[in-house]
Amino acid sequence: MTHAHEAVWYDELPTPIGRLRLVADGQGLREVWFETGRHQRKPASHWIRDAAKLAFARIQLGEYFAGTRQVFDLPLHPLGTPFQLAVWRALARIPYGSTISYAEMARRIGQPQAVRAVGAANGRNPLPIVLPCHRVIGSDGSLTGFGGGLPTKRFLLAMEDRIARGDLFAMP
Question: Considering only CA atoms, which of 78, 1, 66 is closest in space to residue 33?
């Protein structure tokens, strides 16, 4: 849990999907927030806006949106329950340009009956894009809920598919 005296920094990053708010503490990147969408919050009063403290994440996210980075190498510090952390770790192992179902995700964490709980944990992912929850879709191939909205999920999947195929110039 965060203590009021713990240093927490934030900054905003313009991207093709709107502004992202990045939040980090001394252990790593803690949160990525969409400008619009579910789970909106304001920075806590003790947080400090500091672009330099978030440069490590800004650079890699910029490379991701430029199509030159497919795997993030960032220190991460998401805060969640042990189950949520297990789901979020599994998200990091979904390859760029591919998708899996919630049922497959539940199997991958060794809890095949926990499909709904996996969906709930996926929906509370504090590090979207970095931990690619947009790559989890319905068993029927449908795009299901996403904190940044379905148009954003559609954009990210199309961008990754296009880049994974080597089509760097086509629009998503």
Answer: 78
Q: Give me the CATH number covering residue 130.
A: 1.10.10.10
pTM, 2 dp: 0.89
Max Cα–Cα distance, the chain, nearest Å: 48
Find, among 119, 128, 127, the residue nearest to 157 by Cα: 128
48 within some domain: yes
Quick one: pLDDT band at residue 168, thresholds 50, 70, 90?
low
Range of the domain at 46: 8-66
The yes-or-no answer on residue 56 being catalytic is no
Extract the tokens encoding 62: 């910029």
Query: What does the pLDDT read at residue 4?
Result: 55
The residue from 57, 133, 159, 163 that is catalytic is 133
DSSP label of 76:
B
